[in-house]
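Most newcomers find our protein records easier to grasp once they have seen one. A record pairs a protein's sequence with a compact description of its fold. An example says more than a description, so a record of this kind follows:
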Amino acid sequence: MPPPARIDPAIMRKLNRGACLRIVRDRGSVTMAELARASGLSRRTVELIVEELLASGHVHETDPSAEPRTVGRPARSYAFNPRIAHAMAIEIGEDAIAVAICDLVGNVVASERTPVGSDARRADRVAAVHAAVTALVARAGLGRSDVRAVTVASMGVVHDDGVVDLRRKDGDLALVGGDWSGFHLAGELGDLFDCDVTVENDAKLAAVGEAWQGAARGVDNFVFVLSNGVRSGVGIVIDGELYRGHDGQAGEVFWAESFFHVGRTIRPNALLHLGSPDPSARRAAEDALAGARAGEPEARRAVADLAHDLTPALHAIMCLLAPEVLVVGGSTGRAGDVLVPAIERELATLVRPGTRLHASTLGDDAVIRGALRHSLTRIEAELF
């Protein structure tokens, strides 16, 4: 019988260090004795690890005066330093660029949203991202090396090789965005950062955001539907993991509009313009929503019509995937308080697999929050 494989001491030290750092982060403040008990490591091993973490700045000694008073000298305790590194998220939408930076426990330290024209060319959008990132990093008092992971949320399919794709099979641009298709987005932004840049579809990242801080928190199997009047997309989470499908194309229901009754096939409706860059269209949509909430008959009919048009797609998703929860988001989700009950009435006559329907609780922040969570996950994999 061969002898058991010997674990590399360097790997073991790294694993022990990561385990201790995670305990310190999760508990807020721990003493050396508490850390030794929680980790199962010897007191001397924990002392060496804490010395290393103090030297690297990942933990700091807490102020004894802030601890509850005890008899005798209080034990030294240690806390995680969430500002040792930062995560960044960039959302590139039809009419805006959003950028946010958070610390290692998810606290947003700086954010900014910059409008862009819906017909802006790729060079203009990329230039807007460069300007927004540069300004935000400076405003947060950070340097390039302080940002350890960047996730970019983009319109359209993001293929496994990182190429953004907004074209239909016939070659026509499916969405707004001009020449925003057929290029490697991370390569366009790489010179801004000292770390790798990851690009993902916005609806998929919105699902990550809802799982982290929104309507799907604690749910392992759910679907997020992003509908903003211009296009629709779906983020699918199965057993707690984001499902990308073959070559990143899962959830692109816009390309299946003849079946899912979305995109060009949906009837005109004022509520589809809640996120419109056109101020007059947006005001009309907001007036319609306010009217629906006030019980005005015409506005309530607009809600009922939109619910009727969305229900076939939502019901198909429920039957195909049987998620525990389906979350409606995007600009259409702003009408969730009146729209979700209307969709429920449509679904009442149909067989459904027990799926609960919710409106997004993060609203317009779902995508950027999901991108931040994606960046944090990459940093945590390195730290812990």
